[in-house]
Design goal:
The protein is α/β, with parallel strands linked by helices. The chain has 17 helices and 14 strands. A hairpin with a 4-residue loop joins strand 9 and strand 10. This is CtpF protein.
């Protein structure tokens, strides 16, 4: 039983849209309506604006001009126009008190008649027609930096188990390998289980350095350091391996890995986090700040409870993101009582991203050989499943294979017969 479910059409938040986080900036908003004020204030709590210092107040253009007449302007100014004042005239006045380099976002009114070209001439970087929702504000501010800076803003995918031993690492490693091979996206796997990580074994790598060297470094990790620590697995896949030793304990603060993730985002299109099954400040932060989350669970009661709890907490912490995804692994184990997939999904109030069948020989062979599932069996149905998951998580959507014709094999044989022997005589003209 191999299944993958597609709920993208039901997701109002545009699930494939990738909104990159902003650097450390200051943002000040001047709103005309309470609805916009509430939306901007809520945007300040979004994970992608976590590094921004955002303040919002009432007053619109007039208040902004008055404030900046006596004080310097921030990195970004958000202005709401209620349509009662000529917006071009107001922007001319704002330009007189605005510092060079300040970026301006205008939340317009449907009644505004100013051409967009004129707004751009006056230094407006983005124009959004109101009324706006929180995600509109987040998208607009983030786009100022992801679109204007010549850097990569990588997508972070975090994979975690609802319980220990459910195969979350295996799922993470196979999905990352498939993204790198089939989509040709430069990708990095980060094994965050420093004591017991298995990524090095799964990829048949034994690097001398890895994630421990980066997180324990006295200096802030930069691109040069990360390049030295990465182990090359394939043409497009690199590994930041765990030491998997017990010569020390690995206790970290909540922000211990932030600099590592930020540095890799600037150079790598796809980053897959293999998050260990533990609930600490730094694991929760890694999950909350990821672009996509996949919880891997087995079909039993403990996994059911843990998955439900994790989905609830993570949905609440990420109100403007696609809800976390989950997949059910090792389904159909011989002589094991299992919760049916339908019952599991009913409790979660959503369908699983995938249902992965139990196949002890396939997975154990891959693990013992240091191979991926596709390397052991290219045509196995689980290989196809990982390919579909990779496309979905990399923002490429689901790849649907054309249906096979029942007459296909027969037509192929007939074509082969007509192609053999002497060439047919041409009819004389």
């Amino acid at each position: 039983m191999t299944e993958i479910h597609d709920e993208e059409a039901d997701d109002p938040q545009h699930p494939e849209e990738h909104i990159a986080p902003v650097p450390r900036i200051s943002v000040q908003a001047f709103c005309e309506t309470e609805k916009t004020l509430a939306a901007v204030t809520a945007a300040g709590q979004d994970r992608r604006l976590a590094k921004a210092h955002l303040t919002a107040k009432s007053g619109g253009l007039a208040a902004a001009i008055e404030v900046y007449d006596t004080m310097p302007t921030p990195n970004v100014i958000v202005i709401e126009s209620d349509g009662t004042r000529d917006i071009l005239e107001g922007l001319d006045d704002l330009a007189g008190v605005c510092d060079p380099g300040t970026r301006v976002v205008v939340i317009g009114n449907p009644g505004d008649t100013a051409p967009y070209r004129e707004l751009v001439r006056r230094g407006v970087n983005d124009y959004v027609v109101g009324p706006v929702e929180t995600i509109d504000v987040v998208r607009s501010i983030c786009s100022l930096f992801s679109a204007s800076e010549a850097i990569i803003t990588g997508r972070v995918i975090a994979v975690v188990g609802a319980k220990g031993g459910v195969g979350a690492s295996t799922v993470a490693h196979n999905v990352a390998w498939t993204i790198a091979r089939d989509l040709a996206l430069d990708s990095v796997v980060i094994d965050l289980d420093l004591a017991f990580g298995t990524a090095g074994l799964d990829y048949n790598q034994d690097p001398a350095q890895g994630i421990a060297n980066a997180v324990l470094s006295q200096d802030r990790p930069d691109t040069a350091l990360m390049e030295r620590l990465l182990a090359k697995c394939t043409e497009h896949l690199s590994l930041l391996a765990a030491p998997a030793t017990l010569d020390r304990v690995y206790d970290f603060g909540a922000e211990a890995f932030d600099a590592i993730f930020d540095t890799l985002r600037m150079t790598t299109p796809c980053i897959v986090l293999d998050v260990p099954h533990q609930w600490s400040a730094w694991t929760k932060r890694a999950l909350v700040n990821a672009d996509d989350i996949v919880i891997v669970a087995e079909p039993d009661l403990a996994n059911l409870r843990n998955t439900k709890n994790m989905l609830t907490v993570l949905k609440t912490a990420r109100p403007n993101d696609r809800p976390p995804l989950y997949c059910i692994n090792q389904v159909g184990m011989h002589k094991r009582a299992e919760i049916e997939v339908k019952a599991f999904a009913k409790t979660m109030e959503s369908q699983p991203l995938a249902v992965i069948p139990f196949d002890s020989k396939l997975f154990s062979t891959a693990a013992n050989n240091g191979q991926m599932i596709a390397e052991v069996s290219k045509s196995h149905r689980t290989t196809e499943l990982f390919q579909t998951m990779a496309n979905r998580l990399a923002g490429r959507g689901e790849v649907r294979k054309p249906k096979r014709s029942l007459l296909g094999p027969l037509l192929k044989k007939l074509k082969g017969r007509t192609g053999r022997g002497s060439a047919p005589h041409r009819k004389a003209s």
